[in-house]
Amino acid sequence: MKKYLPEGKIFNSPENRYYLQSERTMAEAMAQGLILEGHAVLCDSEHNIIVELPFGKGIIPRSEGAIGIQEGKTKDIALLSRVNKTVCFKVTDIVHEKGEVICRLSRRLAQEECIERYISTLTSGDVIPAKVTHLEPFGCFVDIGCGLPSLIPIDAISVSRITHPNDRFFNGQDIYAVVKSCDEDRICLSHKELLGTWEENAALFSTGETVGGIVRSIEPYGIFIELAPNLAGLAEPRENVRVGQAASVYIKALIPEKMKVKLIIVDVFENSVFPSKINYFITSGRLTKWVYSTNECYKNICSEFV
């Protein structure tokens, strides 16, 4: 069974379903120290998390709900927000109370193991899977393993500028990220490096095509329209255009030496499209340096991972 993935990734796996099926198999999981996942159906008045089990009930006591809860470093909203979602845990005890099988569980122990055996081994440049948990104006919070959070700042989401992370992501979305830096208590992430260079993105388009885009910025000298998360072009000024609108645009020119795309707006209209699937150019391995710029361009846009 794969371990140390964002919560929800192993819930429907055959192994996880096997261990959740009975008191006997849960006892096997406890003996092996396995990390399992279940569905949290309730957070009671004492902030204990109740997990649905086919043969009984699982209880994650408040103090075992997350790293830092007992010390006050983690707020209880981290427990309340797990209701009706998947939670990871290790089984610590199985008892019988009033004719019911009760499994005592610990999400904290699963998180501690994740830190020790996975997160502590990460280094700058590592490409990892992540899951979007919530979006704020300043960035995107993600689960990088067993419910442990990290942040992708808004300016690290893509080369094309966005006004809010919900322009790019939605809650519950599975994405990839790259480790930017590692401190003792946190992992800082980036995302734009996985979305391709100017040249890689420009290769997806051709002069003379009419394609779709999103209005990202309106300046006195023109309108910036995103063709892909890491590629935007400039069209001439036009009235009655607003940021966030969808557009159909004619590609007038692709200019590698200036990293420019010249566009002509064909039409603009309200954008009713859900954030589109992200086209990743990199989904694994480790980066040491990423260069967005073309060889011909005087600009040097790059990221280094040290």
From TrEMBL:
- Per the UniProt entry, what are the Gene Ontology biological process annotations, in alphabetical order? translation
Q: Tell me the ranges covered by the S1 motif domain, including all copies.
A: 125-192, 208-234
Q: Name one GO molecular function term.
A: mRNA binding
Q: Which SUPFAM superfamilies match?
A: Nucleic acid-binding proteins
Which GO cellular component terms, listed alphabetically, does the Swiss-Prot or TrEMBL entry include? cytosolic small ribosomal subunit
Taxonomic superkingdom: Bacteria
| PROSITE patterns from the UniProt entry | S1
Protein family: Belongs to the bacterial ribosomal protein bS1 family.
Name of the molecule in the record: Ribosomal protein S1e
Organism lineage reads as: Bacteria, Bacillati, Bacillota, Clostridia, Eubacteriales
* Chain's gene name: rpsA
